[in-house]
Amino acid sequence: MRRLPPIAANLLVLATTTAVCLVVLEIGARLVLSVRPPGRSGEQAAYTAFDSTLGWRNKPGATVTYNRREYKTKIAINSLGFRDVERSVVKPEGSRRVLVMGDSFIEAYAVEQEKAITRRAEATARDVGCPTEVINAGVHGYAIDQEYLWYRREGFALRADIVVMAIYYNDIIQTVRTRYWGSPTPLLEMRNGELTTVNTPLTPPAPATTPTTAARNPRKATGGSALKYLVLERLITGAPKIYAQMAKSGLVAPYEPETIPDELRVYKTRGQLDEVRAAWTRTSEILQAFADAVRAEHATPVVAYIPASFEVVDADWDLTLMTYGMQPAAWDRGLVRAMLGDLAVKNRSLFLDFTEELREATGGWNGVPYFQHDGHWNDLGNEIAGQALVSFLRRHLLLRCTGSTGRRERPNPRVFESTASVALP
Question: Are residues 228 and 358 in the same domain?
Answer without folding.
Answer: yes
